[in-house]
Amino acid sequence: MWVPDSFFTALLSGRISSLRDEMGAIFIDRDPKLFATILNYLRTRDIDLSVDIRAFRHEAEYYGIAPLVKRLMLCEDLCQSSCGDVLFYGYLPPPCMCIYFVSTFIFKKYVDLL
Question: Structurally, how many domains does the chain consist of?
Fold first, then answer.
């Protein structure tokens, strides 16, 4: 499992006791829709944002899935931000030094004229 020290690693290692039915299935008394979303995240690392983000984060906290909790907290912050709901990932190159030298040269010539 790629998420260490989660509910699932503790459950499967035996650190958490569990009840199994006659087929050997483990019963986990949680919301089945959110549980399916959690399992899908563990399989694919993709987040399904069609569910309630706050409830989804609560489940991720319950299961101890720290990377998911961090991502969902970011999603909540973006949803509550007054800046809108568009993310901008870009790269701004450092300013060109030639512009600095040209503007400095022009400024010095202007000062010399005064």
Answer: 1
For the record, the structure tokens of 58 come out as 């609560």
CB 61 within 8 A of CB 3: no
Residue 50: name the closest of 62, 33, 65, 67 by CA: 33
* pTM tops 0.70, yes or no: no
Q: How far is CA 1 from CA 11, 31, 97, in A?
A: 12, 22, 49
Other C-beta atoms lying within 10 Å of the C-beta of residue 15: 10
Q: What is the tens place of the pLDDT at every residue in 49-90?
A: 888 889 999 999 998 998 899 888 887 776 666 555 555 555
Is residue 106 one of the residues assigned to a domain?
no
Task: Please say whether the dihedral angle defined by the alpha carbons of residues 20, 29, 69 and 38, taken in this order, is positive or negative.
Answer: positive
Asked whether residue 109 is assigned to any structural domain, the reply reads no
